[in-house]
Design a protein that fits this description.
Number of helices: 14
CATH topology of the largest domain: TIM Barrel
Shape: globular
Strand order of the largest sheet: 1-9-8-6-5-4-3-2
Order of helices and strands: HEHEHEHEHEHEEHEHEHHEEHHHH
Number of strands: 11
Structural class: alpha/beta
Largest sheet: 8 strands, parallel
Distance between the termini: 23 Å
CATH class of the largest domain: Alpha Beta
CATH superfamily of the largest domain: Aldolase class I
Number of domains: 2
Radius of gyration: 18 Å
């Protein structure tokens, strides 16, 4: 029997492996999306910072370069959210993923077009609301994740969410290889989401300095900025991020100004003096830059090995 032949995520999303690319604003380029989908996982366009015109071009690129399913990731509080969702429905995007809020008012419209709807949560209570809203799949995202995070670890969150909902569940936060994928599935997840690992791929369009910084960090190489401002974000530790944390206490308004555009700077220019390099805690478990296909193949191979080991009781 083929691996994952009966996996619910693979069946729902029509993919070979139950792995999805995290929705990374600026970093979730159409080029990376294509590579991930072609590798048998679900590539994702990170539309969090996009205008409708930019998303339209990104979708056209992906549809021209792969026939495999892909997703678009939306931030619920985007000023363009209504137009972005309308565009996705119009262009028959196979999967839509929502983060940073409850997408209830968009769900029925998308599902009427045959589009699968996924949504991110950081607590069992939000997961329950999302299930009631008609979301097809919940993504439980632990505090290990890069970017905007909650305050519960993946290992604690996934079992709690699994016990609270009936719809399929994807684990996010700290997933970088077959070992962590197997652990997530043992906790009750039906699939996994990865972001930071895909940043360190050949096809990733983030700046080379961003990739090299990830490779140099250990598992304590990230911290949270924005906690005092009410929107915690996990980033690589740099002199800039440390200054932001200090200014959150001394001058919150200045801290807000420093943060504006800092992710874009990291992705496009790698400017260490003015950039927030969003990445997850598992940076210390990433040691190389590989083609996406090799990352996925190695991950599945290691996953199989770990499952056999657990099954045999070794």
């Amino acid at each position: 029997m083929r691996l994952f032949e009966k996996n619910i995520i693979c069946s729902l999303l029509n993919i070979r492996y139950p792995i999805i690319e995290g929705g990374m604003a600026w970093a979730g380029s159409p080029e990376l999306c294509v590579a991930v989908s072609e590798a048998g996982a679900l590539g994702t366009i990170g539309a969090g910072a996009m205008t409708p015109q930019e998303l339209n071009r990104a979708i056209d690129y992906v549809q021209a370069h792969t026939s495999k399913p892909f997703a678009v990731n939306f931030i619920v509080f985007s000023p363009f959210i209504d137009d972005l969702v309308h565009l996705a429905a119009e262009k028959k995007v196979p999967v839509c993923i929502f983060g940073a809020g409850n997408p209830q008012r968009h769900v029925l419209r998308l599902k009427a077009e045959g589009i699968r709807v996924l949504s991110v949560c950081s607590s069992p209570s939000l997961a329950i609301l999302l299930e009631r809203a008609g979301v097809d799949v919940i993504i439980g995202e632990g505090l290990e994740s890069g970017g905007h995070v909650g305050d519960v670890s993946t290992m604690t969150l996934i079992p709690a969410v699994r016990d609270s909902i009936c719809v399929p569940l994807i684990a996010a936060g700290g997933i970088v290889d077959g070992r962590t994928m197997a652990a997530a599935m043992c906790l009750g997840a039906d699939g996994v989401q990865m972001g930071t690992r895909f940043l360190c791929s050949v096809e990733s369009t983030v700046s080379e300095s961003f990739k090299q910084m990830i490779l140099k960090k250990d598992v304590r190489g990230t911290h949270l900025t924005g906690e005092k401002l009410g929107h915690p974000v996990r980033v690589l530790k740099t002199p800039f991020s440390k200054k932001v944390k200090r200014m959150e206490i001394e001058d919150p308004d200045q801290a807000e100004q420093m943060i504006l555009g800092s992710l874009k700077n990291a992705v496009l220019d790698g400017d260490i003096q003015n950039s927030s390099f969003m990445a997850g805690m598992a940076v210390g478990n990433i040691h190389d830059i590989l083609p996406v296909a090799d990352i996925v193949e190695q991950m599945i191979r290691d996953y199989e090995r770990m499952v056999r080991k657990v099954s045999s009781g070794e």
